[in-house]
Structures are given as C-alpha cells and as structure tokens.
Amino acid sequence: MLPFARVSIIGLGLIGSSIARAVRQHMPTVQLTGHDGDPAVRHRAREIDLVDDIADTPGAAVTDADLVILCVPVGAMGPVAEAIAPELPADAIVSDVGSSKAGVAAALAAALPGATIIPAHPVAGTENSGPDAGFASLFHGRWCILTPPEGASEAAVARLAAFWEGLGAKVETMDARHHDLVLAVTSHLPHLIAYTIVGTASDLEEVTQSEVIKYSAGGFRDFTRIAASDPTMWRDVFIANKDAVLEMLQRFSEDITALQRAIRWGDGDTLFELFTRTRAIRRSIIEQGQDDARPDFGRSHD
Ligand SMILES: NC(=O)C1=CN([C@@H]2O[C@H](COP(=O)(O)OP(=O)(O)OC[C@H]3O[C@@H](n4cnc5c(N)ncnc54)[C@H](O)[C@@H]3O)[C@@H](O)[C@H]2O)C=CC1
Ligand SMILES: O=C(O)C(=O)Cc1ccc(O)cc1
C-alpha cells in the first residue's frame, strides 16, 4: 500500500524533477501533478513528460493532492504556500525540501494555519539546476531529514517517512533548529568557502584567469564544482539560516586563525595533527558508503 496516491510537486527544478522521476520509477501508480512559476520550465516539463499533469497556477496544482511538496528556493516557500492555501484539501500533507528548516517551517505555518505540515530535507543534490538536471536515483541511500513541529501527527510523519523510503532514502527525524546548526557546518559553510575561494582566485591581479583555469589542481577544481551551485538557491539559504551560519563562521574563523599562526611559526605538529584527524574523517565517510564519488553519481539520468 502506497503512502500517497496523488502527489503535487511545486517547483520542477533539480529536486522537484528528481522526485517526479523517482516517484514514476518506484510508485508508478501515483498520480503526479506539477507546477513551476517559470513558463519555460512548465513547457520543458510537458515536453519531457515529467508528470501526468502540469498546472498553470500553484493553486490548481494542489486541488486533488494528498501530498504537496514545495521544491522552490527557501525564500519562495512562504509566498508559494500562501498561493496554494485557498485550494489545499483539508486532509493533504504539505512538505518541502528546503536546505534550511526553521525559517521555512515558520513561513509555512503562517501561510497555512490548520494544515498538516511536515518539513523535510533530502540531503542529496548536485551543483546543477532545472528540470533536465534531475535523476531518479538521486535519493538512493541518502538521508532525508524530517523536522516535524512539536505535536505533529505521528501518522503523517510515518506516511512521509514511508514516501521517502520508497524513493530509496534513509529517514531521520530532527528538531528544525538542530538541523540548521548541523547543516550550517556540513553544507552551508562549505558552499560559502567554495564561493569565496573561487571568487578570491578570480580577483587576483598577479595571477591571470587563464592560469587559474589551466593550473587548477584537484582541490580547486572540487571547489569550482560547488561554487557553480545555483545563486538564487544559495542566496536564500544564507539569508534564511543566518544565525547558524554566522555561529559556524565564527568558529571557522577562529580555527583558520589558529592555522595561520601555526604556519607563521612553523608549528608543523599542529598542522600534522589536524591533517591526520581530517584524513580519518574522510576515510570513515567512505567506509560508510556516503561518498559522492560513486562512479555513476550525478551522471545517471534514469
Ligand atoms: N540543489 C540541491 O542540491 C538541493 C536543493 N535543495 C532545496 O531544494 C529546493 C529546490 O532547489 P533546486 O531544485 O536545486 O532548484 P532549481 O533552481 O533547480 O529549481 C527550483 C525551481 O523552482 C521554481 N520556482 C522558483 N520560485 C517559484 C515560485 N514562486 N513558484 C513556483 N516555482 C518557483 C524555479 O522556476 C525552478 O524551476 C531549494 O529549497 C533547495 O534549498 C535540497 C537538497 C539539495
Ligand atoms: O552538490 C553538492 O555537493 C551538494 O552539497 C548538494 C546539496 C546542496 C544542498 C543541500 O541542501 C543538499 C545537498
């Protein structure tokens, strides 16, 4: 028995289109409806037959749904929730996939009083955007974190968990604020660092742009992948998760200052001890099978 029969996806970019493809693959009897605010995306979604029905307004996309998933940038979650409010069936569950959770949860609760809202975050993605970037296996073996508000219906949480497990994800439940703190250090700060270092390299006067491209060794290349991530999405994440990001940035600044001091004073032991510890962390990630360097990662568009 499937947890939902009629799923509506608002926002048909990387994550929305990946959910659509995964639902088609794993739950082929589910009736899928989609909407995107960009007419070109709606046109493309029709062209590639992404879902069963594309609605021209957010409200029209949810009239029949028993699960509505908002897959838009976090800054657009509140306005989209307001737009679906008049048409939302009373028994529908509303969820989202935003990369930050506390602010989104507050925006959804304000826009949809009385609705069953279970926010979620599939911790899986790539630097690409748009309906052609998605793929059905994106969530396989990846975590999806649910952040139900206090007093949320356990049955609704269980149904949403079953949905994500059905798409191949592993599900964890967490408080929204804790989620935002954890993701600030594991995802948001790394993106900020990547944006910074690629910006710094391109601003240098004594090193030319073509030298940066020509001699970019492994480390810098990896940063450029992350720094190619969607500007709208990440602008919204940093604005929405301001407190947690600033807290982690403060810690990071202190730690990098300590390394600066170690380099200045030739304190090799401090550098060696840190690099040994970080190598062990990388190896344990690989041992747990959570490495994105899987041969087909981001390439398979099934
Ligand atoms: N990119 C990634 O790796 C991951 C992203 N997320 C979250 O998923 C959400 C979507 O991100 P992506 O799919 O990567 O972005 P995307 O840019 O590929 O797709 C977003 C879609 O939302 C549409 N949209 C924007 N504002 C809208 C509005 N007001 N009404 C209707 N449609 C609107 C855009 O036209 C676009 O097609 C974001 O909240 C992001 O934080 C979560 C996990 C991973
Ligand atoms: O492409 C990468 O390396 C990512 O880190 C993808 C990603 C981006 C945002 C999320 O909230 C979750 C995963």
Automatic annotation (TrEMBL):
The EC number on file is 1.3.1.12
Q: What InterPro entries does the annotation carry?
A: 6-PGluconate_DH-like_C_sf (IPR008927), NAD(P)-bd_dom_sf (IPR036291), PDH_C (IPR046825), PDH_N (IPR046826), Preph/Arog_dehydrog (IPR050812), Prephen_DH (IPR003099)
Per UniProt, what is one Pfam family of this protein? PDH_C
Keyword Cytoplasm set for record:
no
Report the residue ranges that make up the Prephenate/arogenate dehydrogenase domain in this protein. 5-293
Q: Which UniProt keywords apply?
A: Amino-acid biosynthesis, Aromatic amino acid biosynthesis, NAD, Oxidoreductase, Tyrosine biosynthesis
SUPFAM superfamilies the UniProt entry points to? 6-phosphogluconate dehydrogenase C-terminal domain-like, NAD(P)-binding Rossmann-fold domains
Catalytic activity, as annotated: prephenate + NAD(+) = 3-(4-hydroxyphenyl)pyruvate + CO2 + NADH
Pathway given for this chain reads: Amino-acid biosynthesis; L-tyrosine biosynthesis; (4-hydroxyphenyl)pyruvate from prephenate (NAD(+) route): step 1/1
User: What GO molecular function annotations does the UniProt record carry, in alphabetical order?
Assistant: NAD+ binding; prephenate dehydrogenase (NAD+) activity; prephenate dehydrogenase (NADP+) activity
Q: Name one GO biological process term.
A: tyrosine biosynthetic process
Q: Which family does it belong to?
A: Belongs to the prephenate/arogenate dehydrogenase family.
Q: What is this protein called?
A: prephenate dehydrogenase
- The scientific name of the source species is Edaphosphingomonas laterariae
Q: What is the lineage of its organism?
A: Bacteria, Pseudomonadati, Pseudomonadota, Alphaproteobacteria, Sphingomonadales
